[in-house]
Design a protein that fits this description.
Strand content: 5-15%
Bound molecules: zinc ion
Structural class: mainly alpha
Number of strands: 4
Shape: rod-shaped
Length: 245
């Protein structure tokens, strides 16, 4: 294939643009801002799950507390009624004795229930404190998600803008390469990620290998418009003033 030197040089510009486009695509797929956003979302989700569990625990203990309180009140009321009857002094001495004995057992029962109530109250306080603490943490976590989302969107749009810019310039540059040479370049680009490389100081800038003496001699004698290929990596080799031929 033949193409004048200017068309060949354009391949090097095209390769620079394609390399940058590939870097942008790679960066876009591995955006640190995207990972940071995912992390922030995961942390908020974790907090919300903890909050759901803590609120459930809080309301369970609260129900337990209300029941313990009612149990104690029941015994207190009964004891108060017994005490009133005892104070009134009505009824047989046998009745009064029975009331006395029930009052004693109610007092024991009351102190048992009060201990249970105290324990439940302590647990209710702890459960409530956990909910409060998690609720206080939530706004900061939610804000972190919003900030991370904004940072991600900004990073993405900056890269998209740069890519769009490069694609526009690529269209212009590609137009000056010509269809036949462009097709060859793109075929090599698709299989190796690089279609054309500069022959610089007797080295292929694609595979970085120094060319064999025999190839260098052949390339030095080749007409300017002949398309050269690296014997090692098969990329299009573009001669410039720096080729050292
Ligand atoms: Zn090479």
């Amino acid at each position: 294939m033949k193409a004048d030197a200017h068309r060949q040089w354009r391949l090097l510009d095209l390769q620079k643009l394609d390399t940058r486009l590939a870097q942008i695509a790679h960066r876009m797929a591995n955006l640190p801002e995207a990972a940071a956003y995912q992390q922030a979302v995961a942390e908020l989700d974790e907090l919300d799950s903890k909050l759901v569990r803590a609120r459930t625990q809080d309301s369970d203990v609260e129900r337990e507390r209300a029941k313990a309180e009612a149990d104690v009140q029941l015994v207190r009321d009964r004891a108060a009624r017994n005490q009133a009857r005892l104070d009134a002094g009505t009824g047989s001495s046998k009745d009064l004795q029975a009331l006395q004995s029930e009052l004693a057992s109610l007092a024991r029962r009351q102190s048992e229930l009060e201990e249970i109530e105290l324990d439940v109250m302590e647990r209710a306080e702890t459960a409530h404190a956990i909910v409060t603490k998690l609720e206080q943490m939530r706004p900061e976590r939610a804000e972190a998600v919003e900030l991370a989302e904004t940072a991600q969107a900004q990073a993405r749009s900056a890269l998209e803008e740069e890519a769009e810019n490069h694609r526009r310039r690529r269209t212009d540059v590609a137009a000056g390469v010509g269809d036949d040479l462009l097709a060859l370049y793109e075929k090599i680009l698709a299989s190796t990620g690089m279609g054309a490389a500069e022959l610089r100081e007797r080295r292929c800038e694609g595979c970085r290998l120094e060319l064999m003496r025999a190839d260098l001699d052949r390339f030095a004698k080749a007409p300017e418009d002949e398309i050269l290929r690296c014997e090692e990596c098969q990329r299009i080799l573009v001669r410039t003033g720096e080729s050292g031929l």
